Amino acid sequence: xxxxxxxxxxxxxxxxxxxxxGWTAEYHVYTGGRGLSQNLEAEQRAIIKxxxxxxxxxxxxxxFDSPAWAALRxxxxxxxxxxxxxxxxxxVTSGFVLALKRPLFDGLQRHRGDVDGQIAVVWxxxxxxxxxxxxxxxxxxxxxxxxIVRQQHELLELSTPxxxxxxxxxxxxxxxxxxxxxxxxxxETLLERLVNTGAELAxxxxxxxxxxxxxxxxxxxKTVTAIRLMGAESIISGIRPQIAQTIVHLGIDLQGIIxxxxxxxxxxxxxxxxxxxVTRAV
Length: 282
Known about the structure:
Pfam families: RsbRD_N, STAS
Domain STAS: 159-270
InterPro entries: Bact_StressResp_Reg, RsbRD_N_dom, STAS_dom, STAS_dom_sf
Keywords: Phosphoprotein
Number of strands: 5
CATH architecture of the largest domain: Orthogonal Bundle
Order of helices and strands: HHHHHHHEEHEHEHEH
CATH superfamily of the largest domain: Globins
Radius of gyration: 31 Å
Protein name: STAS domain-containing protein
Helix content: 55-70%
CATH topology of the largest domain: Globin-like
Structural class: alpha/beta
């Protein structure tokens, strides 16, 4: 084993409690008391154990992607992901790892060796902790991105509800811009509800869509085609005069698709198509 790795491993085993106390104190100073996890000591002990495993395998700090550091990477990823899910910031999360440097240096100072050996072990300790912090931030960013993507998907689903009006008839009020990802959500959700409810007619209301261009029209056409393949019919409502003119100017062919200017007209048409009538109560 490299001498610097041996000295670090010995330090972790002999002075672990002292290092833990120094780590906590340094982290408290760094954060000003913010972001002190309830599982702080458990996280610290897990990291030290994984660090000791890497040192025992004589891993190189410059090759942090090596299998010898696998346990440490996995432990750091777990800590980072948990903190990201709890809403902690990236700087507090990386600061937690970097706070380990000071107690390690203090421990090495208490157990001084020859000058050359001391320089090598200090450099090794600094390099390892730096790589640990880099890995932690990278994992944190990845986790946050995954959370953001999941939340965006959930918001898209909430923004395109499929409503059952009565037996056999569904409605999808679309509000806002209809881009590719949202159009895909609309299609998937609507088709799934068609299967689950056995509905024969779907009303797609675009009153809340500010503009209709070629891309939006294509999304609507694909949705209507998919509905037909499921054995159902569809009505597009909310075709305002401006939208009608835009569709004509773009040369978009909506032949064979039932369109209505208002949702009320679409509802009346849906009732006729499903054999329902409305009579005024006397």
